[in-house]
């Protein structure tokens, strides 16, 4: 459990530094979060359907 939390924080830190230049501009930030939510919801649905069929 502790190892998973450590890896998660490391991944979040890496993603922050990768996407920081894109998140400076507010219009790009709004688009980014909108598309992130859309992709997140679609992946949740796909995961649920995949779990159902397994």
Mean pLDDT: 86
**Largest sheet: number of strands, sense, barrel closure:** none
Strand content: under 5%
Low-confidence stretches: none
Radius of gyration: 15 Å
Helix content: over 70%
Number of helices: 2
Termini Cα gap: 26 Å
Shape: flat
Number of separate strands: 0
SSE run: HH
Structural category: mainly alpha
Describe what this molecule looks like in 3D.
By secondary structure, the protein is mostly helical. It has 2 helices and no strands. The model has no long low-confidence stretch (mean pLDDT 86).
Key structural traits:
mainly alpha
Structure summarized in a few sentences:
This protein has 54 residues and is mainly alpha-helical. It is 93% helix and 0% strand.
List the helices and strands and how they pair.
Layout: H1 2-23, H2 26-53
Transmembrane segments: 6-23, 35-53
Keywords: Membrane, Transmembrane, Transmembrane helix
């Amino acid at each position: 459990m502790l190892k998973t939390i450590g890896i998660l924080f490391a991944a979040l830190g890496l993603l922050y530094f990768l996407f920081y230049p894109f998140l400076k501009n507010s219009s790009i930030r709004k688009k980014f979060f909108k598309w992130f939510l859309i992709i997140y919801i679609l992946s949740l649905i796909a995961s649920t359907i995949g779990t159902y069929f397994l």
